[in-house]
TrEMBL record, chain A:
InterPro entries: CDK, Kinase-like_dom_sf, Prot_kinase_dom, Protein_kinase_ATP_BS, Ser/Thr_kinase_AS. GO terms for biological process: cell division; positive regulation of transcription elongation by RNA polymerase II. Pfam families: Pkinase (PF00069). The gene is LOC100283405. This is [RNA-polymerase]-subunit kinase. It comes from Zea mays.
TrEMBL record, chain B:
GO terms for biological process: cell division; regulation of transcription by RNA polymerase II; transcription initiation at RNA polymerase II promoter. It comes from Zea mays. The keyword Cell cycle applies. Keywords: Cell cycle, Cell division, Cyclin. This is Cyclin-H1-1. It holds the Pfam family Cyclin_N.
Amino acid sequence: MDGEEAPLGALNLAEYAPAGARTVDCYRRIRKIGEGTYGEVFEAVDIITGERAALKKIKLDDGKEGFPRQILREIKLLKKLDHENIIRLKEIVVSPGSAHGTGGSDDHIYRGDIYMVFEYMDHDLKKVLHHSAPSQVKVYMGQLLKGLQYCHANNVLHRDIKGANLLITGGKLLKLADFGLARLFTRDGTLTNHVITLWYRPPELLLGATSYAEPVDIWSVGCIFAEFLLKKPLFPGRTEQEQLSKIFELCGSPNEESWPGVSKLPLYKTMTIRPATPTKRSLRDILQNFDCPAVELIERMLILNPSQRISAQDALGAAYFIN
Amino acid sequence: MADFRTSTQRERWIFQSHDLMERWAAANQRAAQTLAQYGTTRLNVDLLDGSVSYPESMPDHVEGSSVVKPLSYEEEQLTRVFYEQKIQEVCAAFKFPHKIQATAIIYFKRFYLQWSVMEHQPKHIMLTCVYASCKVEENHVSAEELGKGIQQDHQIILNNEMILLKTLDFDLIVYAPYRSIEGFIDDLEDFCRAGNGPFQRLKELRQAAISHVDKMMLTDAPLLYTPGQLALAALHKSNDLLRVVDFERYLEIIFSRQHSDCPIEQFVQSINEINYLVDQLNIPTVKDMRHVDRKLKHCWDPSSHDEHNKKKEKKSKHKSKRTSTDAQL
C-alpha cells in the first residue's frame, strides 16, 4: 500500500473539502485492542504525524436505514463534549471504496468500513481497579467525577459506567469513554430502561423506571468506588432478580416511606416478592475497615432513592476530597 | 446559549462574507473545469462510503469542445435558495418542528459551501438533509416514509447520506435562532412586568419573529452570524412593525447586564446587516428556475442537450418545407 497511488479518477477529497473526513489509509494499524459497544477497536498510528490513535470500527447494519442512528448519536454527543476527563473523538475516517482483501496487513480493510478515531489510551480501569493505593483511588475518583459532572452539566447521561469504559493514560490520567449508550436527556423525557451493565445498574432501572436522570450514573460510580476499596465487585449479580436481591441485602429494602413512588415502578411487585421481611441497611458494615470520609461518600452515592443520591458536583465538594 | 459557545458551529461554521464568496466561487470554477474536461459535471459517489471520483468522459466528448455551459455563480446562488425553500415546504408538509427544518437547511448550506450544485443534485441532497436532520434530532422517520410522502424513491435519500455526513465532518449539532427567540421572549416577559410594556402582546411578537426567522434561514445570515444575533435581529424587525416594547431600551439593559466587550453600536450594526440580507432576499419561483434547471440538467446529462438540439433541427426542417411549399405557390 505504501507506494500505491490513489485509484484513477479518485478525487483527493482533502483538496475538495478541507473540512471533509480523511480515509483510513492515513493510519497504520498495529493491533486489535478490544471490542466497543458496536465493534472492534484497533491501536493505530497516524502515518504522517506519528500520533497514536484508537480506531473504533463501526458496524454497519443492512443499510436499510443508512448510517446507524446510534452511531450518529454517539458522534453528536462526543463532538459536544470537550473536557480533559472525557475521551476525545479526533475524526471519522472511511476505508477506500474498493476491497483490499488479498493478503498482507490490510486484510481487515473491507469495502465501506467506517472508523471513529479516538486519542489513544494505555489501558482501562479494570487493570488497576483491584490494586490501587488509596491516594491513587482519590485521584481517579476525582477525575471520574469531574468528567461526569461535565457530562451532566451538558445534559448528557453516560449510562454505561464500568471499569472497561474508564480509560487511563500515563498511569494517572483517567477519561470517560464509550458513549455508545449515552444520550441527551430532559427532565420530562422517557428513556429506554435497558442500559448500564448489570453489576453497576441502579435499583430504579432494575425496577423498570423509564423516567430517570443523572442519579443512574452516580450509582455506577458508587459501585466503582466501593470496588476500589473492597478489591472485588460490590453487587455481582447473575440475573436482574439476583442483582436486585444483592442490592437490597446491603442497602435495605425500599418502601414508600424511604422511597416515595417506588411501589408504582413497573416491576416493583414482580421483583420484590422475595424479601417479605424488610431488611436493614448494612453496607457500612462491610466497609467498616476503610477511611470514614470515603465510606460516607459511597453511602451517599448508593442511596436507593435516586432523588436523594448525591450529585457529581456535590460529591466533588465532599469531605473525602477536601482533606 | 452556554452550549453554543463551545460548539463546532461557532468554531468552524461561522464565516466572513469574503470567505463564503471564495468557497462558492471555487466550487463553481471546479465544476466548470470538470465540465470542460469530461463533458459532464456529475461526480460519481460510492454509495457505501461516500467517496467521490471524477465522472467518466462522455463517449463523444472532445476535451474543450463542450457546447454545454456551466451555471454561473449567480445561478448557483439562486438554485441554493430555491431548494432551501423547498426544504421548508417538505418539513411543513410533514409537520416537522422548526428545529428539524433549520438543521436541514444548515446542513444544505454547509454541503454546498464545499460542492457545486452541478456536482451533486440539490433535489436529492435536499431530501438527504431532511432525513439526516430527523435522525440527528431524534425524530424517527424512515427513508421509506419520507420517500413516499414526496413521491421519491427512498434509495435516493440513502444514497447521499455518507457524502453528506463526511462533508459536514460529522458536525451534527446545529443551533438555530428559534430556541434563542424563546429565551429572549422569556426575558422580555420580565422586562414587561417591570413596567416596560404589555406582555400580553409578546405572543404576537414571538410569532412574527418566528416568521421572520423562516425567511432569514434562506439568506446567508445563518453562516455569518450567531443564533443569538439572528434572534435579536428578528425580534427587532418584528417589534418595529408591532411596536410592542421599547427595543432600544431593552438592548441597553441586555448590554449593561452582560458587560459585553462588544459596543452596542457594533451589535446594532450587525442586526441591521442581518435585516438588510432578509430585505434583499429574492426567492425564485418555479418559472424563474426553468432556465437554470434546464442548464443544470444539461450539465448533469449532456445527452439531454443533444435531444434538445434534435428537436430544434426537426422544427427547422419543417419550416424549410413550409417555405418550399409557399414558393411553389
